[in-house]
């Protein structure tokens, strides 16, 4: 099948499919006309890639995991190296979430403090009356 059909069948645009190919996640043959030609298995492979991307994995992580993937969801066949890589990624996500939670708490505290002091509202030093904080 050509890239347009693969795009229609998976809901993934052709630009992304070419990116997956460039990252080594998806294979295509070239026809005599130079067009990419995908086999039927490409539909499943793209669905697996999308699910793994949705789990927050990088294309590098996915390239490592795909040989162990079965089914659309996909299920991953465990091996020590695979489990080590996934646990490492999970630790990095946990650390990011922890940093974000601390940032959120600090910002909420600043908002709460500022809200309490707006009763006798006066302009902030250097205030020009224009909003400077991006939404």
UniProtKB/TrEMBL annotation:
Entry keyword GTP-binding: no
Assigned keywords, A-Z: DNA-binding, Repressor, Transcription, Transcription regulation
Pfam family, one: MerR_1
Residues of the HTH merR-type domain: 1-68
InterPro entries xref list: DNA-bd_dom_put_sf, MerR-type_HTH_dom, MerR_fam
Start and end residues of each stretch annotated as Disordered: 112-135
Annotated PANTHER family: MERR-FAMILY TRANSCRIPTIONAL REGULATOR (PTHR30204:SF69), REDOX-CYCLING DRUG-SENSING TRANSCRIPTIONAL ACTIVATOR SOXR (PTHR30204)
Protein name per UniProt: MerR family transcriptional regulator
């Amino acid at each position: 099948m050509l890239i347009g059909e693969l795009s229609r069948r998976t809901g993934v645009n052709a630009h992304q499919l070419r990116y997956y190919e460039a990252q080594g996640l998806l294979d295509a043959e070239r026809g005599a006309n130079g067009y990419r030609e995908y086999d039927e298995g490409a539909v499943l492979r793209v669905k697996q890639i999308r699910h793994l991307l949705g789990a927050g994995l990088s294309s590098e992580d996915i390239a490592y995991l795909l040989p162990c993937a079965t089914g659309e969801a996909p299920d991953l066949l465990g091996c020590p190296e695979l489990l080590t890589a996934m646990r490492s990624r999970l630790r990095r996500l946990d650390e990011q979430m922890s940093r974000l939670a601390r940032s959120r708490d600090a910002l909420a505290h600043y908002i709460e403090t500022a809200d309490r002091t707006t009763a006798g509202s006066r302009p902030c030093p250097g205030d020009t009356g224009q909003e400077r904080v991006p939404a």
